[in-house]
Amino acid sequence: MRFRATAKVNRAAVSPPPRVAAAIGSSRQMAGPNMVGQYYSYQEGAARNAAMSVAAISRARDLMASVIGCMSLRMYNELWNGERMERVYLPPRSWLRRLDPVIPNSTLLAWLFDDIFFYGRAFLYITSRTADGLPATFTRLPAGTVTTQDQAGPVFFAPSKQVYFQGGEMNPDDLVQFISGIEGIVYQSPQVVEIALKLEAARGRNASSSIPAGVLKQTGGEPLSGSELADLAASFNAARATNQTAALNEFLTYTETTALPDKMLLIAASEYQALECARLTNTPPYLLGISTGSYAYQSSTQSRADLYLFGVKPYADCIAETLSGNNVVPRGTFIDFDTETYLMDNYAVDVATSDTESAGMTHA
User: Fold this and answer.
1) What would the pLDDT profile of 223-258 be if each residue is shown by its tens digit?
2) Are 32 and 167 contacting, i.e. CB atoms less than 8 angstroms apart?
3) How many other C-beta atoms are found inside a 10 Å radius of the C-beta of residue 273?
4) Which of 3, 59, 344, 356 is most deeply packed, by most CB within 10 A?
5) Which CATH architecture has domain 15-190+306-358?
6) For residue 287, is pLDDT > 90?
């Protein structure tokens, strides 16, 4: 009896107390953890911002981010029903509806995707834990301000054990690291972004330049002075502008310029470069407004399916499977996105109905 009582006391003594915050204690004096939440110092990165200034890349990013942001997270176990593994969905942990208490999941998940899309990885910092030691709340650390000394990139093989944020080392146990199977686009083909930016710069220069509609050329006779040529051109333009007859003698010819607007604005080159950006971002070209001549009419349902299957799914799987790790949820528990609701035929009608009902409940 004494042994049993002693055993109970010992077990109670070694039970870990609830942790209120993650990186508190020995790391308090370190610059990294102390800079968490200091949003004035957060940066997305120059390469990422340059890529976002390309319209096709911005469109691709926003389309896929909107899908990630609109899907809900779910928690489930797997049970064998005699023929196959069956998912049994569970009541969600509190953070499934709001990982960061400061911002909604629609915003946080979209920016997590942004980091994975551009850099191939993303970071969540655990700001508090539940009594079982698992995370209760998170905050995002922009990948553009995170460096890892044990993995320089651009390909990342596993979660880093030497993570630095704003110059200070972070405890890797207080981080959830999302490692994508797709290399970040700022590393994949920087020349695609560079060419797109140069094309836009050239289009801007051409759009602001004055192009003559034609050229008056003297082919004989007494040479005209500069002022006489200017007066002749002005009277010629005035006659053409008022639909009057413009007269030339045998010593003058008028030649129209071949610098048409579509050539000056490099429309064909820009369309091709937009197609290159679609390839870079793994997005169906027609979703970016690019005409390829090979797509028939697509319904909204088919468009959503194409966007999810060809663009979003690898990133959504990366987020869901990382959140299914034993450092985030209990062993044997998994996280996934509610893709069925997003892909169903009457998605738009159901969303509108849900929003209307929510507004009515709020008003009541």
Assistant:
1) 777 787 777 777 777 776 666 666 666 667 776 666
2) yes
3) 21
4) 59
5) 3-Layer(aba) Sandwich (3.40)
6) no
